[in-house]
Amino acid sequence: MQRPHVVGVSFKTYTATNSTLLSGGAARGYSLSRKGDWEHRMDSEWNNGQPIYRQLRDRVVAMILDGVLNQGDPLPSVRSVAAEYRVNPLTVLKAYQQLVGEELVETRRGLGMFVKAGARDLLLKAERQKFLTDRWPAIAATIQRLGITPKELMRAARSGQSRRAGVNAPGYKNPKQRTGGSPLE
User: Quick one: 128 and 63 in the same domain?
Assistant: First the structure.
């Protein structure tokens, strides 16, 4: 049996922002590779406040949540990620094993690791709860401290949604709007 090849996904060049999952805080970016496939950017700089294996795990989680990696998609090999980032393969393996332990990916003997069915839904549920318990109390306190009204919040939310959708944001390219021919669509 042949090992599947990951076409169009570059683990190294994937970046995700506006995600509480990532410790790097780089901007979300999508570019077209020479072959016409989408490359997804991943920032290669590490945050010294968190172990590298945990940052790798968080980046894979962000890729799953953002739809870059879908159910059944293979993860890049441990060796290739270790070589790209110049980290010990055991560091990458530890990140991947954590994902296996969380039942987000599965190991297929001789083939590699693959995103499990339902991984995105499981992550969304967990990350929503994490946001509400860890981050929301501080945000709510700031809102109260500044005296921001619900009407102002709704206006700001609508404004943010229209910017993310490309309205009133010159040059913004929505990563969800992809052109044909991509294996990730």
Answer: no
Q: Are residues 89 and 41 in the same domain?
A: yes
Is this prediction's pTM over 0.85?
no
Q: Are strands 38-40 and 105-108 parallel, antiparallel or unpaired?
A: unpaired
Q: Is 112 helix (H, G, I), strand (E, B) or coil?
A: strand
Sign for the pseudo-dihedral over CA of 38, 83, 61, 163: negative
- What's the CA gap between 43 and 27, in Å, rounded? 9
Name the 3-class secondary structure at 156.
helix
Q: How far apart are the first and last CA of the chain?
A: 26
Residues 32, 8: Cα–Cα separation, whole Å: 9
Domain extent for 160: 120-164
Whether the pLDDT of residue 35 is over 90: the answer is no
